[in-house]
């Protein structure tokens, strides 16, 4: 991937996470990156193509982070706590989850981008449910918890807590929501 393409994707991702998909144009992006607008069109013919590519890059990055978390943490609950740290990191930069931002703008986001956003969320839910199932197998997580239900509740809590923490300027409250959610798992 060319350095220019990488910079475009990075800036578009950051702009979307901070302000939203509809908040910037190719002209604005070109100015932010420090290139001419035709250069962006050379790499991404239209904003839908750019949108798909930022979601694909974000999804790939997230999968790599999840692999590292899974390898580094010793227990499923610790793994889920480390996962929440990915949201905390974004909050420190004033950024929300890219796909959450895109999901809130569904009417302004092309359908091809929405398809990738849905795929991202399905992957996240599957990963969380797998962690819960693993925790149940080793007796760390209560067997009465339905992994898929917890996954939806947990991801929804993280997304909502991130939005509220950023909106109200109380990032420290995000951690409380995480701990409250994880406390429901203990066997």
Commentary on this structure:
By secondary structure, this protein is an all-alpha fold. It contains nine helices and no strands. Helix 1 packs across helix 2, helix 5 runs parallel beside helix 8 and helix 7 crosses helix 8. The termini are far apart.
Short description:
The protein has 187 residues and is mainly α. The chain contains 9 helices and no strands. It has helices at residues 3-19, 26-33, 37-43, 47-72, 76-92, 98-104, 111-137, 147-168, 172-183.
List its traits.
mainly alpha, 187 residues, 9 helices, elongated, 0% strand
Helices, strands, pairings?
Elements: H1 3-19, H2 26-33, H3 37-43, H4 47-72, H5 76-92, H6 98-104, H7 111-137, H8 147-168, H9 172-183
């Amino acid at each position: 991937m060319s350095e220019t393409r990488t910079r475009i994707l990075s800036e578009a991702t950051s702009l979307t996470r901070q302000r939203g998909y509809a908040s910037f144009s190719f002209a604005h992006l070109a100015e932010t990156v420090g290139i001419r607008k035709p250069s962006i069109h050379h790499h991404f013919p239209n904003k839908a193509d750019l949108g798909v590519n930022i979601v694909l890059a974000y999804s790939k990055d997230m999968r790599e982070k999840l692999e590292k978390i899974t390898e580094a943490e010793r227990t499923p609950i610790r793994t889920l706590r480390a996962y929440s740290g990915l949201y905390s990191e974004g909050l420190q930069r004033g950024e929300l989850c890219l796909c959450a931002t895109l999901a809130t703008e569904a009417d302004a986001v092309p359908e091809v981008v929405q398809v990738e956003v849905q795929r991202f969320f399905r992957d996240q839910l599957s990963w969380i449910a797998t962690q819960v199932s693993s925790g149940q197998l080793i007796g760390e997580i209560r067997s009465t918890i339905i992994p898929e239900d917890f996954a939806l509740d947990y991801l929804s809590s993280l997304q909502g807590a991130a939005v509220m923490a950023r909106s109200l300027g109380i990032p420290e409250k995000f951690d409380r929501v995480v701990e409250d959610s994880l406390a429901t798992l203990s066997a």
